[in-house]
Design brief:
This protein has 218 residues and is α/β, with parallel strands linked by helices. It is 55% helix and 17% strand. It has an 8-stranded parallel barrel with strand order 1-2-3-4-5-6-7-8, surrounded by 7 helices. Helix 6 packs parallel to helix 8. The chain is globular. The termini are far apart. The mean pLDDT is 98. The structure holds erythose-4-phosphate. Erythose-4-phosphate (E4P) binds next to helix 7. Erythose-4-phosphate binds next to helix 7.
């Protein structure tokens, strides 16, 4: 299972990269705004800065919502760096744009996916990644993990190569359950990744080992 970090914060991306388990990064316009990155030149530079920190795929989202401008914007994003994946919203023109990018060998991430039908369309259009937002589904009393399992079944039934990128992940249990259900990737806040480290028995056990060592090695 691949781990992506879901942030535009360079310090957090570096921290995750230094941990040695990071496979990529996802951003979105809200995450860029949260870091105060505004204006075309700054946004472009920020994507390149992220690509220079990590070795894997970096999702950069188009702002346009019509086919022609999505294509224009996506092609410009893809030219920035070989690690850029063009993130496209799950709308009618988005599907057309994904099909176009796929025919040109440009990687895509179909975002804002909330149903199995949407995921099926993304795969048929040739998306590299599909992003079901499990946390946002949970927020409205709908089982986000159930969606991961439905998409896995459908993709396996037909051998679709589109990778299931579990998004809107909120905590460590989401990651574990996505791994059980066969999601290809989880994009997570740093806290969810480091949450996987934690267990009180590990902390207690280590404290005991160090104390016992110290007794005989003064
Ligand atoms: C990922 O690609 C999405 O942009 C992200 O996971 C959304 O997460 P949120 O629901 O926490 O905003």
């Amino acid at each position: 299972m691949k781990f992506f970090i879901d942030t535009a914060n360079l310090a957090q991306i570096k921290e995750a990269q230094d941990l040695g388990v990071l496979d990529g990064v996802t951003t979105n316009p809200s995450l860029m705004a949260k870091e105060g990155i505004t204006g075309a030149a700054n946004i472009t530079k920020h994507y390149v800065d992220i690509c220079n920190i990590v070795t894997g795929d970096v999702s950069a989202e188009v702002i346009a919502t019509d086919y022609e401008n999505m294509v224009k914007e996506g092609e410009a994003l893809a030219k920035l760096h070989k690690q850029i994946v063009v993130k496209v919203p799950m709308i009618k023109d988005g599907i057309k744009a994904i099909k176009y990018f796929s025919s040109k060998g440009i990687k895509t991430n179909c975002t804002l996916v909330f149903s199995a039908g949407q995921a099926l369309l993304a795969a048929k259009a040739g998306a590299t990644y599909v992003s079901p937002f499990i946390g946002r589904l949970d927020d409205v009393s709908t089982d986000g993990l159930q969606l991961i399992s439905e998409i896995r079944l459908i993709y396996d039934n037909y051998g679709y190569q589109t990778q299931i990128l579990a998004a809107s992940v909120r905590h460590a249990m989401h990651i574990i359950n996505c791994a059980k259900l066969g999601a290809d990737v989880a994009t997570c806040p740093l806290s969810a990744i480091t949450g996987l480290l934690k267990h009180p028995l590990t902390d207690n056990g280590l404290a005991q080992f160090l104390a016992d060592y110290a007794k005989g090695n003064k």
